[in-house]
Amino acid sequence: MVNAETALSRYDGGKEEAEKALLAVFEITNKGIAHVTKHIKDNPDHGRLIEIASRGVPSLVVSYLYTPLGLAAPNCKLSHRLREN
């Protein structure tokens, strides 16, 4: 289990933005991934927040899966689009 504070501490940006990003991911996935495009259309900010969350999730996977198993971390940097500030 990963507590909220630990998850939020893995993001490079501000804590409030990271929290909103994770909440957006939970909200969208809880309503169904099959309808993700509708949610992004209804709330355009979700697309940006999903992108932000996608940058922090790999760090959590490395910290709580790869490292405890003694495995090398994969290269999980996004390379297709740079983050807009």
Number of domains: 1
How many alpha or pi helices?
Answer: 4
Listing every helix as H and every strand as E from the N terminus to the C terminus, the arrangement reads HHHH
Low-confidence stretches: none
Average pLDDT for all residues: 77
In whole angstroms, the N-to-C terminal distance is 31 Å
As a percent range, the share of strand residues is: under 5%
The gyration radius over C-alpha positions equals: 14 Å
Q: How many distinct beta strands?
A: 0
Helix content: 55-70%
Structural classification = mainly alpha
Shape: globular
Largest sheet: none
Oligomer: single chain
Structure write-up:
The chain has 85 residues and is mainly α. It has one domain. It is 61% helix and 0% strand. It contains four helices and no strands. Helix 2 (15-31) packs across helix 4. It is globular, with a radius of gyration of 14 Å. The model has no long low-confidence stretch (mean pLDDT 77).
List the helices and strands and how they pair.
Layout: H1 4-9, H2 15-31, H3 36-42, H4 45-66
Helix pairs in contact: 2-4
Structure in a nutshell:
With 85 residues, the chain is an all-alpha fold. The chain is built from 4 helices and no strands.
Task: Based on the model shown, name its key terms.
single chain; 85 residues; mainly alpha; 61% helix
